[in-house]
Amino acid sequence: MSRWARRSLAASRETRVVGDYNDEIRLLETYIRAQGDGASPLQILEAGCGREWYFTLDGFSYELTGLDLDPSALEARRAIKGDMTRSFVGDVRTADLPEGHFDVIYNAFVLEHVEGAEQALLNFVKWLKPGGILIVRVPDRHSVQGFLARWTPHWFHILYYRWAWKLKDAGKPGFAPYPTIYDPVVSQEGLEQFCMRHGLKIVEMLGVGTFRRGFGMAGKITPIVARTISLLSFGQVHDRFVDLTIVARKQAVAPRLSS
Q1: Mean of the per-residue pLDDT values for the chain?
Q2: Is residue 246's pLDDT more than 60?
């Protein structure tokens, strides 16, 4: 077994696998609610907010700020959901938001599409209050889906969304999928190292989802294809779960890095 494979296998043992996305969302809600002090509204930034917010925080005081590069998706979110306190069209790498302002920053399925993703992560650290939490969700780079996303063209992703998920608007303005980049930091190893360097303590790491997904024939074929690719790769890509979620807390004092 290669050194890379041994390191990946060791890291995967630290990942809690959650098969159902609804279970993941409910777990993440507990982390968000725990940030509230009851005295003032919790400040939440959804960085890359897209068209929909999946959390249910009824009876909980918070203000939601949305940031998205896609004006079509943001306008749809404003018009259809109307659930944001404020919203901005902007790039997660260059947006000018207040330092140390947010209790929670939530970033879901965005970083894999960003060239220069580390700059976005640096901004998240800057915008978080000490003690605040960062929630990052990405397709796991080393899962079968992550592998295929990195090595297949964008037009194939659009066709898959339309076939497997029956999303007729896939690829149109304001609709996923978006072109995939996968900077090195967008991986379990890359995110762990970033957190260590920049004063974030990982408090939860989840592997989420199964390959029994899609509708009709796609739901039957997908797990077989995923298992076959994993076997042919001799374990260098896996079908144990689909997506990776990291919950990390900003420490009060940033680490001192040796020169």
Answers
A1: 86
A2: yes
